[in-house]
Each structure stands twice: as structure tokens, then as C-alpha cells.
Specification:
By secondary structure, the chain is an alpha/beta fold. Helix content is 49%, strand content 15%. It has a single domain, classed as 2-enoyl-CoA Hydratase, Chain A, domain 1. The longest helix has 19 residues.
Length: 246
């Protein structure tokens, strides 16, 4: 489900949940636990990676569409706890975006410190609206933080997906490398970060991420209320069912 690969002071957490690294409750809980464990075990930086050609396809469509109201609520609550865990990580997290990264995959990347993406025929973006889902204010603000208000207002309501060059130009990712270099480059970045003077780096990192943390310090939406039974509307179920039928 998640493979650990040690690179000195940097630990790579590689999503390994075939066929598409879909984020189901088990994977969300496991990743959350790994984020807690890493700093406790002396890890100084993390790389979050996927498989060649695919980072994560987002939330597990089958689990989402078949869940009853209460399990769905618990799942969504767990997914938002994972986002907060990433945002509050005491050690830097570099996203190694190894390929396609729609919806929930992009959400994970939003909360990382840096994002390295593979060049190629891949797509990344928050395409929730295309399948009838509402992304919510917290995800919107995290997205806006990277791409700016104007681009967020243009991209999010359309559920637009970007190619790697478009994502770089928009600010959604920080750099592009060849597919085989994504993980090595992310590990290199993590290694560079842990070599900085630790107190100065930690204080400065807290400064530049303070706006991200405020999204959780002062929540403007009740996640359970917004993402309850009404979140998975009839139109969403139809779109998601069509995806499963492909």
C-alpha cells in the first residue's frame, strides 16, 4: 500500500496501491500514520511519490459511490485530517509527481513544500467539478495559494486539467524533470533542505507556510456538514458510475 525507501535522512513514501493508487480509507489512514511516525523516527524530510506514470488517481471512486452516509462522512473527515497532517508536518515534504495526478492526487500535492513533476503526456489538476463534486473552501484556498486568485477562479469552476508545462506556468508545480528523474530530484531537494541551518530553516519554513496553517486554525467550513450525504449528489453518482463503467 505504501513502500518505504530510505535515502539517508530522507524517507520516500511511495504510494503502491494498484491499479491507480486510489485514495481509499485504508490508504488515507496508512499515509496519515506514516506522516506521524517519520519525524518520531528521526526522519528529517519526506518524499511522497507514486508509480511510474501515475502519482494518484484521487479518491477511490468505487468506495465513495458505494459508501453509506456515515461511512462516507468518516472517509471525508479522514481525508481532511490527512490534508491537515501534511500542512502541519514538522519536516518538509516534497511531492514527486511521477505521472497523472488528478483530483485527490493534486490535493495531496497542494500541502507539500515543493512539487517536482514528470514531463510527458500527463495531467494534473482539481477536476472534481467535472464529476459533479464540490471541492470545498479549504482545498480552494490551498489551490489559490499556489496559482493565484485569477488562475484559481478560471481553473477550479471548470475542473480544468493541465499538462506539466501548463502546471509549471500556473505555479501548481515548481519544476519539471524527465520521468526517471522525478524521485531522484525530489530526494535531492529533500537532502538539500536538511543540510540547511536547522533553526533558521524551521523558523523560515513556518513563516512561509503560516497562511496554509491558518486554513485549519480558522476553518470556515464544517467539513462534515459540507461533505456529508448531500455532497454525493445524483449528478455526481451518475458521473462517477460512468467512470466505473469505462
Amino acid at each position: 500500500m505504501i513502500e518505504r525507501h530510505e535515502h539517508g535522512p530522507v524517507r520516500e513514501l511511495r504510494l503502491s496501491s494498484p491499479p491507480v493508487n486510489a485514495l481509499n480509507m485504508a490508504l488515507v489512514q496508512r499515509l496519515d500514520a506514516e506522516l506521524v511516525a517519520a519525524p518520531e523516527q528521526g526522519v528529517r524530510a519526506l518524499v511522497l511519490s507514486g508509480q511510474p506514470g501515475l502519482f494518484s488517481a484521487g479518491l477511490d471512486v468505487r468506495e465513495v459511490t458505494t459508501a453509506a452516509a456515515e461511512p462516507l462522512r468518516r472517509f471525508i473527515d479522514g481525508f481532511f485530517r490527512l490534508q491537515e497532517r501534511l500542512a502541519r508536518s514538522p519536516i518538509p515534504v516534497v511531492a514527486a509527481i511521477t505521472g497523472h495526478c488528478p483530483a485527490g492526487g493534486t490535493v495531496l500535492a497542494l500541502y507539500c513544500d515543493h512539487r517536482v513533476m514528470a514531463r510527458g503526456a500527463f495531467r494534473i489538476g482539481l477536476n472534481e467539478v467535472q464529476v459533479g463534486l464540490y471541492p470545498g473552501l479549504t482545498i480552494y484556498r490551498a489551490f489559490e495559494r499556489l496559482v493565484g486568485a485569477s488562475k484559481a477562479a478560471w481553473l477550479l469552476p471548470r475542473g480544468a486539467m493541465l499538462d506539466p508545462e501548463g502546471a509549471l506556468a500556473a505555479g501548481l508545480v515548481d519544476e519539471l524533470v524527465g520521468p526517471e528523474q522525478v524521485v531522484p530530484r525530489a530526494v535531492e531537494l529533500g537532502t538539500q533542505l536538511v543540510q540547511l541551518p536547522p533553526k533558521a530553516y524551521a523558523r523560515t519554513r513556518s513563516l512561509v507556510r503560516s497562511d496554509l496553517l491558518r486554513l485549519f486554525d480558522e476553518p470556515a467550513e464544517d467539513v462534515s456538514a459540507v461533505f456529508g450525504a448531500d455532497w454525493l449528489s445524483g449528478e455526481a453518482r451518475e458521473r462517477l458510475a460512468a467512470l466505473l463503467g469505462r
